[in-house]
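I hope you will forgive my troubling you with a question about protein structure. The record follows directly beneath this note:
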Amino acid sequence: MRNVACHQATAPAEIYCTHKIEYAMAGCGHLLKIACGEIAKFSGETGCKECFETCGGALTCGHSCSAKCGNCRMKENEETATEEPQDTEQLGNDAKYIVKHMVCKSKCAREFICGHSCTEDCHAGVGCKPCVKRCPVRCAHSSCPSACHNVCAPCIEKCEWTCEHEGRCPEPCGAPCTRKVCDKRCDKMLPCGHQCPSVCGEKCPSPQVACKACACPNALSHVVDLFLFSTLAEYDIDETGPLVALECGHVYSMQSLDGLMELKEHYTCDMTGKWGAAKEQGRAIKKMISCPDCRTPVLGVYRYGRSINKGVLDSMTCKFQVAGERKLNVLRDKLQCVPHTQVLQHKSCTRDLKEIEAELTTLKNTKHPLQKIYEAAHAQASRTSAPFCSDISRPDPSVHAGSRLLLIKAKLTQFSMDKNCKMKLAAAKTDWKKHVLKLNGFLEIEVKSLITYMSANHMLSSHRDTLCVAVPGIHLRW
C-alpha cells in the first residue's frame, strides 16, 4: 500500500483504494475499469444497476440499445418507459432482475426508394413519413424543384450521352440508356493543364477533386478504389483505369463504380472485360443507388444511365402509386361517411359528393408519370424502325381504374340519396324522371369507358370480370 498517510495506516479497512482495476460484472459480463475501493458497490445485490457501459442489447426495432446497461436492469415491479422485457436473470439469493431496454433513441435511417434515408427518431411498427428532402431527379435539361415525395415526370428530350467511339444514345433522356459503354480515358485537358482523369463521354471533373497533381490534401487522402482501398495519391490511372466523378464531389475508380452500380446486370460482358449490348431489364423494383461516402443518390453519370434511370423510373412509379392509393383511401372514407339516408342533410351531402366527384375526376385524368416517356420511346422506335425499348414498362393502371370505379360508386350513392329524398326534390320542382335518366346516362358512359380502359390494360381476364364491372351500370329504376 503506497501513498497512504501514517495515521491512516493503522486502520487499513477504512482506506479507500483509488488504484484502477478491471472488474467483470457478474450479470451482464461487461468489463469495467473502476477504483479498487468500489468493488463492494459493483458486487452487491444491486451491483448490476451500477454498470455504466452501453447496453448494446438488440431491440425489436433492429437497433442496438444505446442506454447505460444499469438503466436497463430492474426488479420486476419497477415501472419505466420501456419496451417489452427482452431477457431475465437471477442475481444474488432471491433478488430477481429483468432486462427492460429503454426506449430507442436512434434515428430511423430506413432507406427510401429515392435513395434518401428517414431522419425521424426510431418509430418501430409505424410507417415512415414521406421524404421531405428536395427531389434528386435532374438531368442536362432540367431539375425537379419539388419535395422528394411529390410525383414528377422523367425528361423526354434527347439523351446527351455521346462520344466519338460509341456514338450517341438513341433513347429519351429519362429512359434507361441502350448505347454501349466506352472504357477509354477522356482525352480532354483540364483547366490546370493536365489530362482529364475521367472516362470518355463524361463531364470533366474539377482539378481540385480529381487531378492527382493539383488536388487538395483532403481529395488526395480520399479512398477512390473500393476494392484495394487506394487513395487518390496512391492510385495509378494509367495502370488501373480512369476515374469517375459523382455530382456530390466524390471520385472513385471506374471499376469500383461499375461494381457498385451493378453494370454487369445491365450490359453483356465477355471474358476480356469488353462491354457488349444492353441486357433486358427485369420488372423488379430497383432502389436508387447512393454514394458510398455521403449517401447522396447517384445521378448525372452517363455511363450508368441504364442503371440510374431504371431506379428513377421505379421511384416515380412507386411515388405515383403510393400517392394515388392514399388519395383513393381518403376519398373512399369520405364517401362512406356521407349519410345518404338523411333527408334533412340532403343539400350538404350533395355538396360533399360533388367535391368527392371533382377530386376523383382530377385523379382519373392525371397522367401516369411514365406515360409521356413511354409514348416518346415508342415514337422514337417507330421513326427509326428500331425495336421498341422494352425497359419502359407500360404504366400501372390500377390508380386510374380505382378512381373510375369509385366515381361510379359516388354516382350510385347520389342516386340512392336522391331516391330517399324524392318528395323533397319534387317540391323543388325537379323533374325526377329526367334527373334519373341523366344519372343513368352518366353511369352508362362511365361503365363503358371503364370496361374499355380495363380491357386495354389487360385487367379483365374473362367475360365474368366484365359483367362484375358492368353490374353497377344497370339502368336505374324509379
The radius of gyration is 34 Å.
